[in-house]
Design a protein that fits this description.
Layout lengths: L15 H20 L3 E2 L5 E3 L12 H5 L2 E4 L5 E4 L4 H10 L9 E10 L11 E10 L4 H17 L6 E6 L3 H15 L8 H6 L17 H4 L10 H16 L5 E2 L11 E8 L8 E7 L3 H4 L7 E7 H10 L12 E5 L5 H13 L4 E3 L6 H10 L4 E5 L1 H5 L2 E6 L5 E5 L3 H6 L2 E2 L2 E2 L2
Parallel strand pairs: 1-5, 7-8, 12-13, 12-14
Antiparallel strand pairs: 2-4, 3-4, 5-6, 6-11, 7-9, 9-10, 10-11, 14-15, 15-16, 17-18
Helix pairs in contact: 4-8
The structure holds adenosine-5'-triphosphate and magnesium ion.
The site of adenosine-5'-triphosphate has 19 residues, from strand 6, strand 10, strand 11 and helix 10.
Length: 428
């Protein structure tokens, strides 16, 4: 019996015909992030587990339930990154990038890993693009980051999202608010879902955002952190809103929204897109002023966002914004008979060295079959080499649009075709 190999649950093969859609997103991200002066950073796909699971521990699902953690052969606990921020901050601290310039702006691209229940828009290996600004708490930075998220989505033809905005405060205002919240929720503690019961003491803020408990009347009437901000946080929040208004960016204040990781402070935001069903958050982010210090760096603030490429693709497919993948070459080399093999191998290699896209049939098919390949690949020219051509050190070049055929000396064929084919476009 042949063994059937299948990809792991929650992963996907991105086939050549689909890559054009992925590249369109990646190319646009790179172009736009550079315009806003962000620079690419690439960090390892796995990190020491402590980079994600620090000190007192985190109460969020991502860290508690979703991480791919394993012991390597040296008995170290490693984790496949579930998100990009912690790794970027770890690199910033370890490489002492704060010594180069106070405020640094990064972007990244790559696979992330979470042990989740796979469904449309939710996978175990998925891909994120993201940005981070480390070193400034200026509310103009918050506005820039949110503005870039808005601009990026619109640039991709996605413009029916709503931007949800909140402030989750700082350790100062959160401490006093937490006491009030616990007092308010105490009477219904036993009615809450299992997760909320276990996060009750540590992070009751998350109960307001719980998918199961959020419409319990007592949860709905709970005091929000947004109404309990300290002066600094309230001022920051108000200023961010003023700047967004100046930029013409529309948003909704969403007082129950908290972020999926505990290190977030102040500004939190999510872009939600209705067209892709229940799992609708396509881009999300916020401030993380405590994280740099938590990872052993100086007391510097940070802010960023991350978005899932798969969900963008769903949103674009819903709008028919897909990119036509092309499977095309300019030239197909057709070899007829054994004596033509050497010349065809050489000519093909020389065409490619001159940056002419070219291919050949590797099935040993006859001339007819080889010409079919040229057809399928929408080639503009075929270069035919048979016994006659070999004996006269030439090739026959056929223009497939006019059906005209000319004899060209082998050493001239590259120049001959270069004059007629540029960047995949025939000049005639
Ligand atoms: P959700 O509420 O959908 O679980 P999250 O809060 O866990 O989202 P973040 O950690 O903020 O998500 O990640 C940012 C973005 O990455 C999400 O808005 C989404 O577009 C994408 N994303 C997160 N988890 C997945 C996943 N398992 N599969 C595909 N995309 C994902
Ligand atoms: Mg999640």
């Amino acid at each position: 019996m042949m063994v059937q190999y299948a990809k792991p649950r929650g992963t996907a093969d991105i086939l050549p015909d689909q890559v054009a859609d992925w590249r369109a997103i990646e190319d646009e991200a790179r172009r736009l992030f550079a315009i806003y002066h962000y620079r690419e950073i690439r960090t390892p796909i796995f990190e020491h587990t402590e980079v994600f699971l620090r000190g007192v521990g985190d109460t969020t699902d991502i860290v508690q339930k979703e991480m791919y953690t394993f012991m390597d052969r040296g008995d170290r606990s490693l984790t496949l990154r579930p998100e990009g921020t912690a790794g970027v901050v770890r690199a910033y601290v370890e490489e002492k990038l704060y010594g180069v310039a106070n405020t640094q702006k990064f972007y990244y691209f790559g696979p992330m890993f979470r042990y989740e229940k796979p469904q449309a828009g939710r996978y175990r290996q998925f891909h994120q693009y993201g940005i981070e600004v480390i070193g400034s708490s200026d509310p103009r930075v918050d506005a820039e980051v949110i503005g870039l998220g808005d601009h990026f989505l619109r640039q991709l033809g996605i413009d029916t999202f709503t931007l949800h905005l909140n402030s989750v405060g700082c350790p100062v205002c959160r401490a006093s608010h937490k006491a009030h919240l616990i007092e308010h929720l105490q009477p219904i503690r036993n009615e809450l879902c299992k997760d909320c019961q276990s996060r009750f003491e540590k992070n009751p803020l998350r109960i307001l955002d719980c998918k199961i408990d959020h419409d319990h009347p007592v949860v709905m009437s709970a005091p929000t952190i947004t109404d309990a901000l300290c002066d600094d946080c309230a001022h920051q929040f108000a200023t961010v809103q003023t700047y967004l208004d100046e930029m013409g960016i529309t948003y909704e204040i969403d007082k129950t929204m908290v972020r999926g990781l505990d290190y977030y402070t102040q500004t939190a935001f999510e872009f939600k897109e209705g067209s892709i069903g229940a799992i609708s958050t396509i881009l999300a982010g916020g401030r993380y002023n405590g994280l740099i210090h938590e990872l052993g760096g100086p007391e510097l603030p940070g802010i960023g966002f991350a978005g899932g490429v798969e969900r963008l693709l769903l949103a674009r497919a819903a709008r028919q914004e897909t990119v036509q993948a092309k499977d095309q070459v300019d030239v197909v080399v057709v070899a007829m008979g054994d004596s033509a093999m050497n010349a065809s191998v050489r000519v093909l290699h020389e065409l490619r060295k001159a940056h002419i896209t070219a291919d050949v049939d590797y099935y040993g098919r006859g001339v007819k079959g080889q010409l079919k390949l040229a057809d399928r690949l929408s080639a503009r020219y075929v270069v035919l080499i048979g016994d006659d051509e070999v004996s006269t050190q030439s090739v026959s070049v056929r223009d497939l649009s006019t059906r005209e055929q000319v004899l060209v000396e082998q050493h001239r064929v590259v120049n001959y075709l270069l004059e007629r084919v540029t960047n995949g476009q025939s000049e005639i």
